[in-house]
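For practice. Supply one:
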Amino acid sequence: MNVKSTHHQDSKLLIICLLISSAIFLNYFFWAINALSFLKYVNFSILIFLISYFLVSREFKKYNFIKLFFLSLLILCLGSALTDWDARSVWLFHAKRIYIDNDLYGGFDNYMPELMNAYPLIAPSLSATLAKLIGHWNEIFPKSTNILLVLPAVLIQCFFLKDSKFKLMWLMFILLFSGRILINGRTDGLVAIYFVSCCLVIFKLFIGKNLNFLSIKNKKINRSIILVLGILFGIILTLLKNEGFVIMFIIFISTIFFKLLTKRNFSFEDLFFWIFIFLPIIIWKFMATTGGVYPRIIGFGIEAVYSESLTQRIIIRLTDLDNYKLILDYLILNEKFIISLIIFGFAFLKNFKKNEMIFKFVIFNSIIYYFLLYFIYLSTPHDISWHLNSSAHRVLISIVLLLTYFSILSFQGKKN
C-alpha cells in the first residue's frame, strides 16, 4: 500500500470517527432538549449506518482487527446476562426510566436517591433510544450500546498507533485489563477508554509535536477534525459519570500547566475548546442541583445514616492503621495496576529522551487522579472496606489503560 493511499484511509477514518462521535452526542442532545422522537430515531439509524459502513467497507480493510475487536465485544455483550448491581440498578435502571417516561430528567424527582440520580446520562440515553426503536425493553440488549460508545475512542487510539503490531498489542491489553468491564453494562470501562483518548488528542493538539505525520495536503483539515473530535470526546467523558467530569478537569489543569511550562501561547481556540467541553456537564449539574439532586458519594442525602462531617471522616480514617492496609491491598497491590506500572517503567527507561514531554504529561495526570482516589475513599460516607472492595478494581482501570497505551505509543519512531 502506497503512502498516498494510507493517508487517504487515515483521513477517511478520522471522518467516520467524527461522524460516529457526533451521532452519539446528538442522541444525548435530542433527549436533553426533548426533541421529536423522529429525530432521535433518524440520528440513531445514521449511527448504525455509519458503524455498519465502517465494518463492511473495503476502504478500512487495514483496520480489520478493530472490526473483529468491536464485533467480539458486541457479541459478548449481547450474549451475557446483566448481573452486576451497579449495571442493573443504576445505569440500566436510568435507561429504563428514560425509555418509559420518555424524559431524560425523570430522575430529578429523586426517586430512590441511592441509585445516583445526579449521574449524567449519555450512556443510558443511547440505551433508551435503541429500546424505543426496537419497541420493547429487556435486561440484555440495551446495554449493548456501550460497545457503540467504545468504537470512536478506540479508532482514534489506533489512528495514532501507526504500526499494526502496536495496534494489535493495544487491543489485546484492552481485553486483558478491561474486557468484562466493557460488556457488563457499567460505565467504568468507557471512562477509562475516553480518559486515554482525551489525553492523547489534547496532548497532540496543544502540547506535543502536533500532527506532523499527517499529509501536508490535508493537514489543516485533519487537524480541524481532530480538534472537533477532542471536543466531542471531552463532552462524552464528562457526561459518562461524575468521575469523567473530574478526570476531564484534571486534564484541563494539566494542559494549562504544560502549556505554561513549554511557553506555548493561549489562544481563542483553547478557550472555545474548553468552553464547549464543559458547557453540557455544567448545564446538567446546574439543573440537578437546582432540583435538589446531589452526588451521594460525598454524603449528600444520607446524613441520617452517617453523622460525621467530611472532615471528621477523613481524620478518623487517617488515624486508623487498618485503613492503610486496606488501601495497600486495593490501590497498590492490584495486579493490573502493577503490570501497567512495570510496562510503563520499561517504556520510560527505554524511550524517555525521545518522549520526555508525553511521559511527564501522563505521569502528571496519573498522579493527580491516583491521589484523588485516596481522598475519595478516605472521605466516603460508606464503609471504607466495602467501598474499596466494590469499586477500587474498576476505577484503577483508568490509570492502568493510560499508562499502558502511552507506553506502547512511546515505541513509535517519531517523537510524540
Summary: The chain has one domain: 3-409. Residues 3-409 form one domain.
